[in-house]
Amino acid sequence: MTKKSWLTLIHQVTHQFPSDRPQTPVDSPTYPWPSMEIFMTDFLFSSPRLYFSEAQKKAVLKWAKAMGMPTVPALSSLKQCQEKIKNIVGDGTEKVTSAGGNIFYLNSVARAISLDYANPLTRLAMTDYPKNEGSYFSDHFSGEKMLFASDDIATPSVSIDKKIFFVDELLQCRNGQYFIPQRFFYSRPASIYGPENTRESDPEWLLCAAGFGVERTELGFIVDESFIVMPIDEFEHNFETVSGRPEFACGFTANSATWAAKMPHPLREKSQGRRVLAVPLIVFMDDVSGNVSKQWNKHHAIYMSNANLPREMIEKEFCVRFVTSSPHASPMELMAAMKDSISKARESGVIAYDAKYEEEVFLLPYALFFGSDNPMQAEECSHGGLRCNLFCRTCKVGGTKAFKQSDEGFASLFKSSEIRTPEETTKEIHHHVQLAMLPGGAGKVVNARMGSGVHDSTTDAIVNCLLEMGKSLRKSSPGQPKLSEATIQQRLAEELERLLGGRTLDDAINPLLGMVGVNIHLDTPTEILHTVLLGVVKYFWAQTVFILEKLKSLEIFHTRLSSLNAEGLNTIKLNADYLCQYKGSLIGKHFKSLAQVMPFLIHDLVPQSVLNGWTVIGRLVVLLWHTTIEDREAYLAELSRVIEDFLTITAQCAPSILLSKPKFHFLIHIPGYIRRFGPAILFSTERYESFNHVFRLTCIHSNRQAPSRDSCRTFSIQDRMKHIVFGGYWLDPTSKRWVRAGHEILHYVKADPARARYLGFTSAATTTPGAAKLSHAKSKAPSQISIWPQTQCASIPNSMSGPNNTFYKADNFVSLHGDTIRINQNIITEISGKLFVAKVIEILVPNDGTDLATKIGIQAFEFLPALHSTLHLPRLQLSSQKFVALPTDILCAVNVQHDCLNGKCNGIKTVPVTQERLEAKKTQRTVVHSDLNAFILNTHSLHNYKHIRAVIPPHLAPEPLAEDSDNIRRNAVKHIRASKTTLDPSADSDTAPQANNDLQPEAHPFEPSSKKKGKGKTSGRATHKRTREETEVDETPKRRKHQ
User: Fold this and answer.
1) % helix, strand, coil for the chain, step of 5
2) Res. 15: pLDDT tops 60
3) Residues 551-599: tens digit of each pLDDT
4) Contact of 534 with 382, CB cutoff 8 Å
5) 46-59 as b/e, with b when 16 or more CB fall inside 10 Å?
6) Side-chain half-sphere of 756: how many Cα atoms within 13 Å?
7) CA separation (Å) from 371 to 96, 689, 905, 918, 981?
8) Is the pLDDT of residue 890 over 80?
9) Rounded distance, CA 878 to CA 859, Å?
10) pLDDT in tens, 976-1030
């Protein structure tokens, strides 16, 4: 098409939707869009996952016009409409110029949280106050940071019958008593009234207040500073009412006079009668490529989530908010802008519409924690990384090389040392700046950083400038008098003032060290994706593969992996060809799957200590991926024991790895972080790593002239679209009323829930227990009908059915908890109050047209009295007991493996390979299992872990595998000292463990041999590309070049 034709078409289409048409009235069914045609086009082009380039948008509109559609909007009209909607609904994109002079853009934090509260989809899911769940643990708001929040971040008010009650204010209860609340939280009625006084009509959760009772006397009010807890339903008169009464004129007694200065609460006047709510935020920062190709186009990006949402909502892409990105600014420049955005919103307060209570609220955001990979978290903590003697960002563990190789120093790696504090870190940074002004400052600064572990990237430019200037001033020049030290110090002090530009040094250092409500050393929780899966599991995988290759056993491993029973695991397909061919390039999802099955694959291929290591890894991964915790203290005690057991076994396998890989020590801090923030999966970064794809799409469709601005604007358009179509409110600039979209707009997504996925909102698929799939394509043909006596279920005792009843046989059905269960699959069932493991032998669907299974034939397993002697897992045996169960009796699927070790399953057969859904001539080897009736329950399975734990008899609970841990650790450090040098665990070894049943126990099977290598030999150890996350153990947390 010629340019003239294009212009004619644009003119024709634009004429149908003129840019100067009047604003769409608020009562229009398509408000704020002028028509459904423009809305549907805008909806399609605003999808985060279906991102359209400008050329693609034009092509789609041209195609629609060519198909004869009469009302196709022009792209220019669409953009004009988007601009008008931006002016109506609002826009939070702001320009930022950092202290270093870099320019980037940011989407306002205040704007983002106001959208969360004004949208019914997110608002109705929120919990406004922390929950005291007792031993149960499931979300952030049950963690200690929120439950025992400091005064500056705790939610300060509640509303009862439109009356606002603040903390630190005197109120009167319904019984006439006086009270000063200090904290508001949810608790179960039984915790307040006692179990014997609870009623069925009581709500599940009561909003309560903890505070101090107050007695009125002739001398004044006396505060009894003993904490008491009461439901807020007992509140009657707030401070505004009480302070206006004559009896308040007496004031407080001298001993309680400090309370008078706190009243009224400063936020009472500032909020102007609105309820004040605290909004905890999860902040995530990462470096991500803006390219789809392998060429690295580095951007730093920050996302955030509202931690008042439950885990199920936080995991959704819909609830992840983009904040800022830049290919130019440093991570801490972006974080400074993020901190300023939160601080400004907190200082001024955010007035938003509350879609739950249909009133305005006053919001105060704060940072709950900062998620990222380990190098980024080290930078956020002003920590120097592994090169420092004190290598942990959380505590001061470590020391000199000699100390870490001593008995005392090596033992210190297995426990937490003194916890770092922001105040100490700030003081150390000040000290580094002062050292930079002294003679020999470069060496002194390096030694100070090495010795303390503190390295603030924010002040690097200042320190380097002072060092260069000091070096220049102290350098003698021919014919020039040498400057006195006093003169040099004066000039350096003047230069420091110039570099600060009127700021104090505290304002120029890491902005997170002085942030309200943040202890950065405790608010950067150990992240399980990079620390566990891409850390310790990956290290064990690399060393195990090395042993298998040395023993020529990798082919056996491949055969077992391809023959593995993966039913009940609910993991990615364990592609043996891929995992073995690309063994050095696996990612997190592969390691998560391997951790659940490795002991069944290598039971006779590696030394027992290595096998024990994988067994404990399986236990560790299951514990860390808990979504809920039933008994907090018991869980944390078990987790701590498993971590200690794993570290001891690691010391048995590879002592030196504990010195060279700090991620092993980082495991020790996970129980503390779980206590502070909730289950570890809550501070996992997998959801944000997935969101990187959405961010990348905004980069590849940008013209790269203003990448930060383009990304911010794109996400702003997407956020507005999500807010409007899901029923969010906004303040109409004309009428000054809170309004929402027209009914046709709101109905658009409700009419087809699949459309919600275009905007990143997915709902769990609903399943009906018993829903079955019949066995044959013509499954309801008369020939497929069986009468009751012809079924296997009929031969089972106590099975009941009429002799003439007819059934179809099904291939699978849906269990009570949504698993699809097939014939011969293993399940956990509950019959007559008893839990047990069983095998499905028949699925019957009555001939009544419902396609719902009603009778499930099962054969029970029974537990053997002791754990497996090698794998340390519960053993099962198929019994002769059979039952007929209902679909609702079948709780879930479970993974059961054949006991190939005792069954001596050494037989191999070849089977055809399926390619392109066809049977190819190519074959693969598979294991032939013996007839031994011996099986193992896979307790390392993440799927249905709660039911697996419940079905295991108490006497089969796992025990620590490392006996005499103190002696193992002493021998390990002796081995390190005995070596001439601490060898790199990725180095090659000329010797290998003995093969198969002749394996001899080795003291340290992962450690390289001390024998001298032959010339020209190359390493046979498994290699892999080193990512930025992995290189943290070798480099400082400076943002490194991607590899």
Assistant:
1) 40, 20, 40
2) no
3) 999 999 999 999 999 999 988 888 999 999 999 999 999 999 999 999 9
4) no
5) bbbeebbeeeebee
6) 19
7) 23, 11, 46, 45, 36
8) yes
9) 7
10) 988 754 444 333 333 333 333 333 345 688 776 544 444 433 333 443 444 444 4
Q: Residue type at 38? A: I
CB 28 within 8 A of CB 21: no
CA distance 870 to 655: 23
Nearest-angstrom CA–CA distance, 1039 and 567 = 42
Residues in the chain, overall count: 1043
Report how far residue 530's alpha carbon sits from residue 947's, in angstroms, rounded to the nearest whole number. 28
Is residue 342 scored above 50 in pLDDT?
Answer: yes
Predicted confidence (pLDDT) at residue 931 exceeds the cutoff of 50 = yes
- Report pLDDT for 1009: 55
* Residue 645: φ, ψ to 5°: -65, -45
Cβ contact 47:759 at 8 Å: yes
Taking a C-beta distance cutoff of 8 angstroms, is the pair 521, 420 a contact? yes
Q: Per-residue pLDDT averaged across 919-945, rounded?
A: 93
Q: Which residues pair with 893 in a beta bridge?
A: 827
Out of 77-86, 240-249, 429-438, 776-785, least confident range: 776-785
Cα radius of gyration (the chain):
33
8 A C-beta contact, residue 743 and residue 135: no
Q: Is the pLDDT of residue 186 over 80?
A: yes
pLDDT value of position 11: 42
Sort 505 into a burial class: Cβ within 10 Å, 0-12 / 13-18 / 19+: middle
Pairing of strands 103-107, 93-97: antiparallel
- Report the C-alpha gap between 756 and 47 in whole angstroms: 10
The end-to-end CA distance of the chain, in Å, is 45
- b (16+ CB within 10 A) / e for 371-409: bbbbbbbbbbbbbbbbbbbbbbbbbbbbbeeeebbbeeb
Counting residues of the chain whose pLDDT is more than 70, the rounded percentage is: 91
User: Considering only CA atoms, which of 185, 193, 183, 181 is closest in space to residue 132?
Assistant: 185
Query: Given this model, what pLDDT does residue 88 score?
Result: 92
DSSP string covering 124-167, please? TT---S-EE-TT-B-SGGGSHHHHT--TTTS--EEEETTEEEET
Give dist(CA 864, CA 866) in Å, integer: 6
State how far the alpha carbon of 133 is from the alpha carbons of 139, 199, 684, in Å. Answer: 10, 19, 22
What pLDDT, on the 0 to 100 scale, is given for residue 489? 93
- CA nearest to 1006, candidates 658, 587, 663, 666: 658
For 369, the token pair is 């924690």
**244 phi and psi, to 5 degrees?**
-90, 0
Q: Of 45, 42, 47, whose CA–CA distance to 32 is shortest?
A: 42
Tokens representing residue 196 in the block: 């014997």
Report the chain's mean pLDDT, rounded to a whole number.
Answer: 88
What is the tens place of the pLDDT at every residue in 937-978?
999 999 999 999 999 999 999 999 988 889 999 999 999 988
pLDDT tens per residue across span 290-318: 887 777 788 999 999 999 999 999 999 99
Q: Are 35 and 71 in contact (CB under 8 A)?
A: yes
Using alpha carbons only, what angle is made at residue 1024 by residues 1021 and 1026, rounded to the nearest 5 degrees?
130
Q: 1034 to each of 540, 640, 885, 1027, 1031, how far by Cα in Å?
A: 18, 27, 58, 12, 5
pLDDT value at 1 more than 90: no
CB 555 within 8 A of CB 1018: no
CB-based contacts of 354, cutoff 8 Å, min separation 6: 117, 118, 123, 275, 360, 361
